[in-house]
Specification:
The protein has about 160 residues and is an alpha/beta fold. The protein is built from 6 helices and 5 strands; from the N terminus they run H-H-H-E-H-E-H-E-E-H-E. Strands 3-2-1-4-5 form a 5-stranded parallel β-sheet, with helices on one face.
Length: about 160
């Protein structure tokens, strides 16, 4: 079994692979899962994150690293921003595309070490409940920072 298969088995065993209907309603529908407390925390984090984005001006270009099923990327896209969501878990990437795909949300099956984005591609980079999956955060941030505009920011949530 490779790492991707092992990750999928763990996600399934923990009850973290959700139906399309539940994913479509996240974070509120997360209250109907075994991880209700986590979803309440994520909902609060989501609102705090969105409040940090400028209320006026052009849409932000946002990269979400470890986007999973895409729920947070979809929220940011619905708020008017252009979002690129990346994740290595193929099943959740496909679910994100199926449930939330559209012109403001591009979902890619990749990771930050193999993805190729031009310098200064993003105004914000978001890692929501994903930083813990990276064994060397310094190397990760060294990889992400060149993709940011000079006034850009990286947000780490949950």
């Amino acid at each position: 079994m490779n790492a991707t298969e092992a990750y999928h088995r763990v996600r399934a065993k923990e009850g973290r692979l959700l139906s399309d209907d539940l994913v479509r309603g996240l974070p509120a529908s997360g209250r109907h899962t075994p991880h209700a407390l986590e979803w309440r925390i994520r909902e609060r984090s989501m609102y705090r994150l969105i409040r940090t984005f400028p209320a006026q001006g052009p849409p932000l270009r946002i990269l979400e690293v470890g986007a999973g099923n895409g729920w947070l990327s979809a929220v940011m896209a619905r708020a008017g921003h252009s979002v690129t969501a990346i994740d290595t878990h193929g099943e959740e990437v496909e679910q994100a595309r199926r449930v939330f795909g559209g012109p403001a949300l591009d979902v890619l099956h990749t990771d930050p070490f193999t993805a190729t984005f031009p310098a200064r591609s993003f105004d914000r980079i978001v890692l929501a409940a994903s930083l813990q999956y990276f064994t060397d955060p310094r190397t990760l941030f060294d990889r992400l920072v060149p993709w940011l505009e000079p006034e850009g920011a990286i947000h780490v949530l949950d």
